[in-house]
Design brief:
142 residues; 29% strand; globular; Alpha-Beta Plaits; 5 strands; 34% helix; binds flavin mononucleotide
């Protein structure tokens, strides 16, 4: 069967503070499931927000997203984009963690007053890439 490779990007608001404990729990679950199911991506978190990219086989991404939406650690989940992709962009990470530090000078210059709920999907992807390449990114191998 041919694999349909998809990228889904969504945004959400954290319920409660985004403590290290919460982040560690989310990442432990994410990395265990994602590496077993060939899901790759990045989770940006900070300022009470999450921005996540999920790449993988379409039906796997769909069912994972349904579980993520039902998670009561966040709310106001909104799909930003859902696209067929020829190749993965984040193939090195089962789930990279990036701090959504929009005060980072390099990032804020290119994305002044960034609000994911009113940003276009190219702007969101561009922010994620800038965060990943800036010094503040916390990058973890898959
Ligand atoms: C912001 C956020 C991102 C998450 N990302 C993932 C992920 O990439 N992969 C994953 O398996 N679970 C992820 N989770 C956890 C799922 O929402 C869910 O708790 C987990 O899949 C277990 O689901 P279950 O309790 O229905 O079995 C994430 C949760 C949150 C709040």
């Amino acid at each position: 069967m041919t694999q349909l490779l998809t990228r889904l990007v969504y945004i959400s608001r954290a319920v409660g503070p985004q403590t290290t404990t919460v982040t560690t729990q989310i990442l432990e679950t994410a990395r265990a499931f994602n590496s077993a199911h060939h899901i790759t991506g990045v989770l940006c978190q900070g300022k009470g927000l999450y921005v996540q990219v999920l790449e993988g086989e379409r039906s796997v991404v769909n069912s994972l997203y349904r579980r993520i939406v039902a998670d009561n650690r966040h709310t106001d989940t909104e799909v930003v984009s859902f696209t067929d992709i020829p190749a993965r962009q984040f193939q090195s990470w089962s789930m990279a963690l990036v701090s959504l530090n929009i005060d980072d000078p390099m990032v804020s210059m290119k994305h002044p007053e960034f609000d994911p709920y009113s940003a276009t999907s190219p702007a969101i992807l561009s922010l994620i890439n800038d965060l990943l390449s800036s010094g503040t990114a916390i990058q973890d191998p898959a």
